[in-house]
C-alpha cells in the first residue's frame, strides 16, 4: 500500500461497521491515529483496538443526533487524543434530519 502520509488524528463517525470500519482500517495502515466513533455497538472495533493499541486508535461513544453529545465528543477527543485534523462524516442519510 502506498504511504499517503496520514499521520494526523482522524475522527471517523459511524466507524463500527461498513464503510466507516474500512476507513479506520485504511487510515491505521497508513500510520494515522484514529478515533472511531460509535453510537451503540463497539464490538466490531475490538480487533482494531487489539491490533493497533491505545496509542493509535481509540473509540468514542456519542449520539450524533444530540448536539450536546457531539460537542462533548469533540471536547473529549481534544483533551484525550489531540485535535482532530481530518474528520470523516460517515452517516447514512436515513439517520439525519433535513436540518442536519
Automatic annotation (TrEMBL):
Keyword annotations of the record: Oxidoreductase
Entry keyword Metal-binding: no
Gene3D superfamilies: NAD(P)-binding Rossmann-like Domain
GO terms of molecular function: oxidoreductase activity
Keyword hit for Oxidoreductase: yes
Pfam families: adh_short (PF00106)
Family (UniProt): Belongs to the short-chain dehydrogenases/reductases (SDR) family.
UniProt name for this protein: NAD(P)-binding protein
Organism the protein comes from: Laetiporus sulphureus 93-53
Upper classification of the organism: Eukaryota, Fungi, Dikarya, Basidiomycota, Agaricomycotina
